[in-house]
Amino acid sequence: GARADVSAGEIGEDFAEAVTTVQDVWRGSQTMMQKVDAIIGAAAIGRDAADQGQLVPESPAGQVDPPVAAASSGVDADPAEVLRFFDREARDGRSSCFDCGAAAAEWASLSNAVYLCLHCAGAHRGLGVQLSFVRSTRLDRWSQGQLYRMRAGGNRRFKAWLEQYPQLAVHEPPRSAVDLRRRYASRAAHFYRHYLEAETGGAPMPKDLRKPSESEGHLPAPEVSAQAATAEDAGQAAGASETSLALEEERKALEAAYVDSHVRLRSAFAPAPADEGR
Question: What count of Cα atoms within 13 Å lies in the side-chain half-sphere of residue 209?
Fold first, then answer.
């Protein structure tokens, strides 16, 4: 076919150019989404999580300072810093896929601060952003606050937390979408996400949220309510919640479109199979 008339070098150049174009569009879209997200979410940043320390699991070495994290939560991290951080995570063996164990995972569930392979990242999108907000460790822009969250969390910490709840079977890959939702919609995972948010300078722990017991950690968490609002601005809070949900749905569609484009590019520029006998 036509592919036979094109040299390997030309295919490589065309593929690199196409990937660069897709990445530029992706990053530009992410910049726009971050700016809108920052405006919508500014009022939802918590002020203090210090009084919740007795409710949470042990912090890892190198715990971040919540006031520092809160102050820089909306500030874009230097792209070189982002690459160094994720390269170090990979080099130290901390970035395998949390769900299936695949090596060199280049996606992350920011909500749960764990790493994911491309396949599992797609499965996480089916959970909805309220349970797992997925980002690329290589292509997305990351804020300082998001890096703080990944540094504070990580695969090992989340695994150690879920190991307290044997019925969640953290040592076995989820075999279906039902198993995946059972893990991430559990009371144990729900509590952990709230703790990470509070620890890294986000919204404080809800006053009525307590660490689930071993016998109830696997149970479904109650529906996540909107950020609490005072009576006088409850109407404004409801409007902001609806707008935020719409934004997250658009972000989810954007991410899905990017993954589809990336897969199509790889397929289109894949080298033709060699003839048998050569």
Answer: 24
With a CB cutoff of 8 Å and minimum separation 6, the contacts of 49 are: 66, 198, 199, 201, 204, 205
Q: Which two tokens stand for residue 5?
A: 């008339």
Determine the Cα–Cα distance for residues 116 and 120; give it in Å rounded to an integer. 6
Per-residue confidence band for 264, with pLDDT thresholds at 50, 70 and 90? confident
pLDDT in the model for residue 13: 74
123 and 177 Cβ atoms separated by less than 8 Å = yes
CA distance 64 to 57: 15
Q: What is the pLDDT of residues 200-246, one digit of tens each?
A: 988 888 888 999 999 999 999 986 433 333 333 444 444 455 555 66
For residues 115 and 79, the answer to whether their CB atoms sit within 8 Å is no
* Residues paired with residue 115 on neighbouring β-strands, in sequence order: 108
Per the confidence metrics, is the pTM higher than 0.85? no
